[in-house]
UniProtKB/TrEMBL annotation:
GO biological process, one term: Mo-molybdopterin cofactor biosynthetic process
InterPro entries on file: MGD_biosynthesis_adapter, MobB_dom, P-loop_NTPase
Alphabetical list of CDD domains matching this protein: MobB (cd03116)
Organism field: Quisquiliibacterium transsilvanicum
Transmembrane segments: none
NCBIfam families linked to this entry: mobB
Leader sequence segment: none
Source species taxonomy: Bacteria, Pseudomonadati, Pseudomonadota, Betaproteobacteria, Burkholderiales
Residue ranges of domain Molybdopterin-guanine dinucleotide biosynthesis protein B (MobB) in the record: 3-135
Name the UniProt record assigns to this protein: Molybdopterin-guanine dinucleotide biosynthesis protein B
Any GO MF annotation of the entry: GTP binding
The organism's place on the tree of life at top rank: Bacteria
Amino acid sequence: MNVFGFAGWSGAGKTTLIEQLIPRLVARGLRVSLIKHAHHSFDIDKPGKDSYRHREAGATEVLIASDRRWVLMHELRGETGPTLDEQVAMLSPCDLVLVEGYKAAPIPKIEVHRPALGKPLLHPGDPHIVALAADAPLPGPLPLLDLNRPDEVAEFLCTLMENGR
């Protein structure tokens, strides 16, 4: 499976760009999955629901399934969480795994950058960043993609995959 990341400061537009890319990549016939790193405690379950009550009672894993989707929730309960490689291995086979976050991961990445945020660029310190997606011109040696043109970014990703990157 091809694994490709998107890194950038909060508010730069990573989620929006990925949301725009997925249907474009799927339309090209690719099966796409996503791993999103959350920097805080999160919960997809709702208090009062059976699954929530079972986790609160101490279950390590709760799997909820219907005829439309399924989800497996795993409580770490003090254990170390899975690495990015372990998370990728948990996914069903697909053509492309998009990764949001995991700034330090040694995977090819596009840095999403908005100069108006006033944050420094990440790419000078990360050799795995292969391009920038920005909403303004930026100097530098990396390819510059227009953050407001997701078709351009999708084309770039597909070209990288075709070239075995």
